[in-house]
Design a protein that fits this description.
Elements (H helix, E strand, L loop, with lengths): L11 H9 L3 H17 L4 H10 L3 H13 L4 H9 L1 H23 L6
Length: 113
């Protein structure tokens, strides 16, 4: 028996969303804690949401808030170094992403492929 939530979903985008849903119980509390920490540190709600959208890594987000509290001027460089590990992940999954993108484009009838 296939226990994957997304196994019965045919549309690739819906299948991707259904596959990601089991991660929500861990991600949502982290987002709430980060948002509260960032606002408490002096960021606006928009700034906290923007940081979450642009710096998609829990460790880097919390480090950035800590550095803001200390008035660090090299914040961008430090956040880049913390997130540099994602460059390796990106390189390793690039081909898989290209294949999946073509499947999604074909499924959405964009005329590609």
């Amino acid at each position: 028996m296939d226990r994957n939530v997304a196994s019965g979903v045919k549309h690739p985008v819906r299948r991707a969303i259904a596959s990601a849903l089991p991660l929500a119980p861990g991600i949502v509390p982290l987002g709430v804690v980060f948002g509260a920490t960032a606002v408490d540190a002096g960021l606006s709600v928009t700034g906290a949401v923007g940081t979450s959208a642009l710096v998609f890594a829990g460790a880097a987000q919390f480090a950035a808030v800590g550095l803001l509290l200390q008035g660090a001027s090299a914040l961008a460089a430090i956040v880049f170094v913390i997130n540099a590990r994602y460059l390796l992940l990106w390189a390793a999954t690039l081909e898989l992403g290209r294949r999946e993108a073509l499947v999604i484009l074909r499924a959405t009838n964009t005329g590609v492929g």
